[in-house]
Every structure is written in structure tokens, then in C-alpha cells.
Amino acid sequence: MSNESPMRFHAMDSLRGWMMLLGVVLHAACAYGALPMGEAWPFKDEHQSGLMDVILVAIHAFRMPAFFLVAGFFTCLLVARRGLGGMLDNRARRVGLPLVAGWVAFVPLTFAGFLEAAPSSVSPLSAELGWDALLSPVNLGHLWFLYYLLMFYVATELVAFGARRLPVRWVERLDLRLRALIASPWRALPLSGLTFTALVFMRTGGLDTSTSIVPDAAVFWAYGGFFAFGWALHRHRDLLSMLERRCVEQLILGILLLPIAFVLIGENLETLSATGEPHEAARIAAAAVSALNTWLLTFGVVGLFLRHQNQFSVGARYLSDASYWVYLAHLPVVVWCQTALAPLAMPALAKFGLTLAVATVATLASYQLWVRATVVGQFLNGRRYPRTLSADAPTSVAAEA
Fold first, then answer.
1. Is residue 1 in a domain?
2. Omega before 137 cis (within 30°)?
3. Which of 12, 37, 161, 296 meets the CB 3.0–4.6 Å disulfide criterion with 41?
4. Is residue 386 in a domain?
């Protein structure tokens, strides 16, 4: 890659930003859905709507998988430009340090909001909520994905160490098979089989997350598959256009599978809430449907971004740059807004819209005023951006996304 022009991958960069921003939408809906979410979201408003559950299940099905795919893509790019050591150093500063700083700054504020909201909650878990949930073991909250990214970076080093000791013909053969997989319109089927082996060990059969500092093997395997595919996609980036083909059809198929996944996961959540144990048959069925559904939706979304967002845009670039801060800082705003709205007799949809609007405006305003052109922006984005936007497309970037 040393002779290539380091142009920005606009579609992948924009996709990364939007997946971060969708996290604000997802968390704004958590308090207003009817499905029990257990420890993942202990506060539930008495005003609820099934539409919020649909939003939650739909966004959760593809948001983090697409994000980890993009993360793997850009990690491969960083290794190609800086080497494994340079990549690890860069990721330690851009991911490891924000994880520690974010946990100190934002996670306690979030838990304080949950504690304040507890008396208004219709969730029985709220009565058991306490600071021990934050400290024993360390609860990473909404920053859990940064922790798993760090593990994926270390795993990259270990895999690369092993790969260097393999016969060249083995590596070449693997690359040929990866090219065939990326180019195949049926790529979602074998990949969903791999993801199924992780989902079948999760409580509901759907994609789970783990906020504990103790790594979860199933979570690591599930999201690691998307990270690895993103890595392979950059190695064979001449095949990126293959993901544009039939992306609409894959998105439609994924959407058609969503109601089935919704029913199965909902049944498991209800059973877990009532008995503490999942419905085994529904869990296995949910794992099979969710694995295929997740890959179809992810490929559909990635293909659409490659088709329609693969050019420079001032607005898209700004949102992409702002998305890291917005995600890090949004959760305390969301929880405290839900807490303030809890006593009000308002429809769930109205509370959701107000929470989303307040969180979005507050975090974007704080980014513009206190982050973008300051040392905090340099800490998160690798450089200080001017507060005023330029309509000129960048000729090259450090590809730090």
C-alpha cells in the first residue's frame, strides 16, 4: 500500500459515524419499550409503547455488527500504513485512554441517573439498584465496545504472529477463499453459521452485550466475526463494489426476518423475566434467525452506504467527526432526561422524541463548543478541527477512524 494515495474511505467513515449516532436513538427508546431488559436498562417508564421495542430490536440487529465490521476494515488499513506496533500504539491512545476517561467521567453520572429514576420505575430491578452494580465487578456501561475493540487489536497481533509462521501457500489459499466469500451473493449463509455458534450461548438467542470487565467468550466470538470480515474486506478492497450488488434485496430479506426474531427474542425475555431461565427451543430458533438476519441487514446497510455515501460531504464529515464524542457523552443526558420526564403524563413516543432531541442537541453543541477545536478533540480525533466547516474535500487523511 505504500505507493497508494491515502484517500479517505468516505462510505465506511460515514457508516461508522451513523452507527455511533444510532446508539443515541437506541438508548433513548430503552425506557419506553414494554419488553423487560433486566440489568441492561433497569429503569422503565410507566408510559410504554410496542413501537419502542421494534426500534430497539431493529437497530440492535445491525448497529454494532456494522460498527465492528468498519473497525476491522480501518484496523487493517492502519496496520498496512503503520505496522502492527504503530496500530497498537495508535489504538491505545485513541481507544484505550478514552475508555478510561469515559468510564470515570460518564458512567458514574449514568448510574446516578438510574438511582434517581428508581422510585419512578415500573421495573422491579430498580429496587435492587446500587453503586455496587457499578463497582463489583467494574461495569463498563455503554463503553463496553471499546473494551472489546482493545481485545480485538491484541488478537490481531497474535493472529499476525501465527500467520507469519505459516507456509506462504496456506496464506495464499486462505486469501483466495476469502475473495470467493466476499464476492459470493450467498456470503451471509456461511457467515451466519459461524455467528450462530456464538448466539446459541446467549440468553435470548439474539446478539447480547457484556458490560463486565470480565470478558464474555460468546460476545467476543460473535462480534469478532464482523471485525475479522472487515479486516478481510480491506485486504480485498477491490471487491468492495460486490457489497453494493443486491444490497437492497439483502436489506429487504433482513427486514422480513425481523418480526420472527422479534417474537422469539421477546418470548425469551418474558420467560427470563418470569423464571430466570430462557425458553430453550425459542432461544435456539432465535439464534438461527438472528444470525442470518444480522448478516443480511449488515450487508444491506454497508452496501447502501457504499452506493450512496461514497463521496465527500461537509455534513457527513462533520457528523462522522462528532459521533465519537456524541456517543461517549450522550448516555448521562439520556438517563437524566428520562428521569426528569418520568413523573409527567405524556405518551411514550413524545417522551422518546423529547429525550432524543435533548441528547442530540446537547452533545452536538458541547462538541462544537468544547471539543472540536480543543485538546479534547485532539484526544479523541487525533487532531483539532477548525470550528468552521470547509466545503473542500480532503486530499488525504491519517485514516484514524
1. no
2. yes
3. 37
4. no
Question: Residues 71, 87: contact at Cβ < 8 Å?
Answer: no
In the chain, the number of structural domains is: 1
Identify the residue with better confidence: 217 or 127.
217
Contact of 391 with 313, CB cutoff 8 Å: no
The length of the chain in residues reads 401
- pLDDT band with cut points at 50, 70 and 90 for residue 388: confident
Is this model's pTM higher than 0.85 or not? yes
**Alpha carbon distances (Å) from 72 to 12, 40, 227, 297, 397:** 11, 26, 4, 18, 18
Q: What is the DSSP string of 138-184?
A: TB-GGGHHHHHHHHHHHHHHHHHHHHTTS-HHHHHHHHHHHHHHHH-
Instruction: Judge contact between 110 and 335, C-beta under 8 A.
Output: yes
Interacting residues of 361 by C-beta distance below 8 A, sequence separation 6+: none
Q: For 275-291, what is each residue's pLDDT tens digit?
A: 777 778 888 999 999 99
Q: What type of residue is 37?
A: M
Distances (CA, A) of 267 to 54, 258, 289: 14, 14, 14
Owning domain of residue 107: 10-381
Grid coordinates representing 259? 418480526
Share of the chain above pLDDT 90, in %: 74
Contact between 63 and 25 (Cβ < 8 Å) = no
Note whether 53 and 262 are within 8 A (CB): yes
Rg, C-alpha atoms of the chain = 21
Distance CA 386, CA 366 (A): 15
Mean pLDDT of 107-132: 85
The angle, 0 to 180 degrees and rounded to 10, between the axes of the packed helices 188-199 and 217-235 is 160
**pLDDT digit string (tens) for 186-196?**
999 999 999 99
- What pLDDT sits at residue 6? 42
Question: Which residues have C-beta within 8 Å of that of residue 94, sequence separation ≥ 6?
Answer: 380, 382, 400
Q: Is residue 389 part of a domain?
A: no
Residue 21, CB half-sphere, CA atoms under 13 Å: how many? 18
Q: What mean pLDDT is predicted for residues 194-217?
A: 93
pLDDT category at 2 given cuts 50, 70, 90 is: very low
Cβ pair 207, 65 in contact under 8 A: yes
Position 381 scores a pLDDT of 86
CA pseudo-torsion sign 121, 267, 219, 322: negative
- Domain-located, residue 392: no
Per-residue model confidence (pLDDT) at position 391:
57
Distance CA 146, CA 91 (A): 10
